[in-house]
Task: inverse folding
């Protein structure tokens, strides 16, 4: 479906014209970036989604293996017993995890990532149940960033302690967390944050996400 996403501004769109505040998406592809008036004039039948804030490319969560394979994301029904935050260390060990539980945890973790504007994760994923959950989520999987000459080790033994769900927290410039740039002809992976600009985004973090679009599909919308 042809959709125009419009907000206060668009960032990370490369050669987008000055004053660009909208992105036109046809199916899973970006077909235009520019001022709202121009985009809707050329596409009068397009559905319009209006947002308040900043449209950016979707984010890349580079710490996804740790978040999904070294942490348990409790089911809301377990909140009274386990709380709502990811469990690690001794608390995780005490759960006696199996593949079924790892898969359910990964699905909940992936949903939490979508709520933070994430459209891509960096692999690899060693647990079969986690790999299946990631594949079914539709999130893009980027190759691991391995220094030249580094010797490969068992993936599960190399999983670090989990970091946060906010990909912006570990980079000095929010733009460094973008999975890719927004470009005409490229995938329609974008996020909308309730901020004015990148400086404000750095302050507020990815928790300010109000919408995530993955392959042209609205996969998260803050109520």
Result:
């Amino acid at each position: 479906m042809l959709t125009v996403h419009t907000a206060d501004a668009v960032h990370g769109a490369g050669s987008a014209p000055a004053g660009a505040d909208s992105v036109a998406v046809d199916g899973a592809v970006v077909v235009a970036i520019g001022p709202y008036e121009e985009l809707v004039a050329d596409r009068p039948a397009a559905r319009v989604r209006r947002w308040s804030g900043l449209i950016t490319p979707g984010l890349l969560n580079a710490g996804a293996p740790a978040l999904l394979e070294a942490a348990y994301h409790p089911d809301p029904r377990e909140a009274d017993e386990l709380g709502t935050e990811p469990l690690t260390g001794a608390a995780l060990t005490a759960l006696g995890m199996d593949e079924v539980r790892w898969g359910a945890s990964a699905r909940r973790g992936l949903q939490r990532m979508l709520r933070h504007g994430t459209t891509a994760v960096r692999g690899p994923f060693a647990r079969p149940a986690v790999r299946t959950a990631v594949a079914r989520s539709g999130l893009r999987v980027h190759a691991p960033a391995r220094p030249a000459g580094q010797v490969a080790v068992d993936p599960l033994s190399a999983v670090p302690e989990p970091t946060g769900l906010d990909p912006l927290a570990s980079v000095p410039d929010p733009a460094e967390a973008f999975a890719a740039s927004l470009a005409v002809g490229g995938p329609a992976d974008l996020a909308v944050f309730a901020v004015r600009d990148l400086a404000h985004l750095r302050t507020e973090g990815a928790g300010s996400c109000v919408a995530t679009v993955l392959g042209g599909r609205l996969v998260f919308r803050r109520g």
In short: The CA atoms of residues 18 and 130 lie 42 Å apart. Residues 60-170 form one domain. The chain has two domains: 2-58+180-221, 60-170. The helical segments are 36-42, 64-69, 79-82, 89-93, 99-114, 128-137, 198-204.
